[in-house]
C-alpha cells in the first residue's frame, strides 16, 4: 500500500521531523512515546514505539539516505511485521511525502487511516 500527502512544510522541516524520533509524537497522534537511544535515526537504530493505547511495537531502521530524503524501517507488533519506506519530495510551495507499507492486508487496512492522518500533519507544518 502506498500513501501520499502534500503540504506547505518545507522538505527540510519534514525530513527533520522524520529523522528525529523525539518529534514523531508531535505529528503522529497514534504514537504516545518513542524509546530509542539515538537522537537521529541511522541505519541500525533500534527502539520501541508506544501507541496511544499503550501497545508497544519494536522497530529497526534499515536504511537512511539523507541526500534523497528516503528511509526504511521494520516494525514488529506481536506476530505482525511491517516494512515502511518513507520519502520526502520538494513541491512548489512545500513538500510531499510518500509512505509505502508492506505487510499483511489486515494490518495495512487497520493502519491506513491513522497513517494518512499522520502524514497530513507531518507536511502541514
From TrEMBL:
Top-level taxon of origin: Bacteria
SUPFAM superfamilies named among the record's database cross-references: Bet v1-like
Protein name stated in the entry: SRPBCC family protein
Organism of provenance: Streptomyces mutomycini
Amino acid at each position: 500500500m502506498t500513501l501520499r500527502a502534500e503540504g506547505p512544510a518545507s522538505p527540510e522541516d519534514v525530513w527533520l521531523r522524520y529523522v528525529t524520533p523525539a518529534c514523531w509524537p508531535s505529528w503522529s497522534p497514534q504514537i504516545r512515546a518513542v524509546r530509542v537511544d539515538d537522537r537521529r535515526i541511522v541505519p541500525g537504530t533500534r527502539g520501541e514505539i508506544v501507541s496511544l493505547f499503550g501497545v508497544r511495537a519494536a522497530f529497526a531502521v534499515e536504511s537512511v539516505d539523507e541526500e534523497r530524503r528516503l528511509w526504511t524501517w521494520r516494525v514488529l507488533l506481536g506476530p505482525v511485521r511491517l516494512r515502511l519506506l518513507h520519502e520526502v519530495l520538494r513541491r512548489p510551495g512545500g513538500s510531499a511525502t510518500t509512505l509505502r507499507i508492506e505487510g499483511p492486508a489486515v494490518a495495512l487496512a487497520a493502519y491506513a487511516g491513522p497513517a494518512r492522518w499522520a502524514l497530513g500533519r507531518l507536511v502541514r507544518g
